[in-house]
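The authors assume throughout that readers already know how a fold can be written as discrete tokens. In essence, backbone conformation is discretised, so a fold becomes a row of integers matching the chain in length. A single example would do more here than another paragraph of explanation. For illustration, here is how one protein appears when written out as sequence plus structure tokens:

…
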Amino acid sequence: MNHKLSIALLLPLLVIACSQESTTQKVPTPASIETQVSNTATQPQIIFLEVSPETRPCTGVAPQTCLLVRELTLSETGQKNYTEKEASYFYDSIDGFTHNSKSTQIIKVKRTEIANPAADQSQYQYELDSIVETIPSK
């Protein structure tokens, strides 16, 4: 009879213990770690930018100095076709690029879309591929 009483008392405790949510944390798998590290959504897109020798003060998240750029395409013959008439403020940085205040530069840039940018972050990451042309300022 003691066994029947013991089982009758232990059974409700066992049911309660099994029904509560686990408080252990899930160990990240290599795939989930890779997803967190790889924050880019797409393959890089190649774009061309004309970078003015001038920079201007601007305010993004905080006051900063912006490049003045115009996006363009280059034909197979080297013909420049500007997608913008006027230069616009470029708030981001271009990895590997150093601005030259003594010349206008046409640069080839890899632009990669960032999958989940922070609220104050650009949706793109830019990396210099090459300097196509350097035109000394007059």
User: Anything to note?
Assistant: The helical segments are 2-19, 30-37. Confidence is low (pLDDT under 50) at residues 21-27, 29-38.
